[in-house]
Design brief:
The protein is of the alpha/beta class and 256 residues long. It has one domain (4-254): Rossmann fold, CATH 3.40.50. Helices cover 43% and strands 16% of the residues. The chain contains ten helices and seven strands. The protein has a seven-stranded mixed β-sheet, sandwiched between helices. The two termini are 32 Å apart.
């Protein structure tokens, strides 16, 4: 297998998908807490961390890797870009995804003529240009945007910077592909087709995936529960870990 997946705990399988430019180690402390109740699988997406990249990094290629690795149905928790991948996986292979947890994610990361809850095309174009010039600086800048306004912002930023390249630098092709997904994907039409029970977690102060986008998703999904974590920005699983873990265990135990 080309996917690197770290597994902790026992019980029902819970797959954790990270965001753009990061790796599965971002879930480490959260996974330790969740492992008291679940068998937690922290995935390095293709081209990130210790996972190889075989070809291009697209939504379909990533889901193909995930589907091959996980032979049995799983619960999927996706953060940011990982949330979009999780949502698409649930639509494409509903038999593989039992339940969904979408963390500070959005159906459309990009602002559009009929979608105000996204980042402007100009900002994403700037990121694309900067990525080609110096991807290390671009990733570090992206960390700052994720945490802006969060409780404990300075400490969290220091923590994220330590983790960013702790498993090596991500593949530039994977970075380009992930950014293309964020720029081009519009999954609003997918939402009414998702049958799985879904927990939508938003950060009140998130300036990347606006809480309004989470509210929209919760309204359009057929069976969704919305939680807005006050004082959190884009990484509530780090800034408000106890509340985050509590909401997930409450949601999943409530379905049993």
């Amino acid at each position: 297998m080309s996917l690197h997946v770290e597994v902790v705990g026992q019980g029902e399988s819970l797959v954790m998908l990270h965001g753009w430019g990061m790796h599965g180690g971002i879930w480490s402390d959260t996974a330790t807490q969740l492992a008291k109740h679940f068998r937690v699988h922290c995935v390095d997406l293709p081209g990130h961390g210790e996972s190889a990249l075989n070809g291009e990094f697209t939504m379909d290629s990533v889901i193909g890797e995930l589907s091959t690795h996980f032979e049995h149905p799983v619960i999927v928790c996706g953060w940011s870009l990982g949330g979009q991948i999780a949502l698409y996986w649930a639509m494409r292979e509903p038999e593989k995804v039992k339940r969904l947890i979408l963390v500070t994610s959005t159906p459309s990361f990009t602002e559009r003529s009929d979608w105000q809850f996204g980042i402007s095309q100009e900002v994403l174009l700037q990121f694309s240009n900067e990525l080609e010039r110096n991807h290390t600086v671009t990733l570090r800048r992206f960390l700052g945007l994720q945490l802006r306004g969060s409780d404990g912002e300075r400490e969290l930023l220091s923590n994220l910077r330590e983790q960013l390249f702790s498993r090596g630098e991500p593949n530039i092709i994977a970075l380009r592909g992930g950014l293309a997904i964020l720029r081009d994907s519009d999954l609003r039409h997918v939402l009414p087709t998702i049958m799985q029970s879904t927990l939508v977690i938003a950060g009140e102060r998130d300036r990347l995936s606006f809480p309004e986008a989470s509210i929209y998703m919760a309204q359009k999904l057929l069976n969704a529960h919305l939680v807005i974590i006050m004082g959190a920005a884009h990484t509530p699983f780090m800034s408000h870990r106890i509340e985050f873990v509590g909401q997930i265990t409450k949601f999943l135990y409530g379905q049993n």
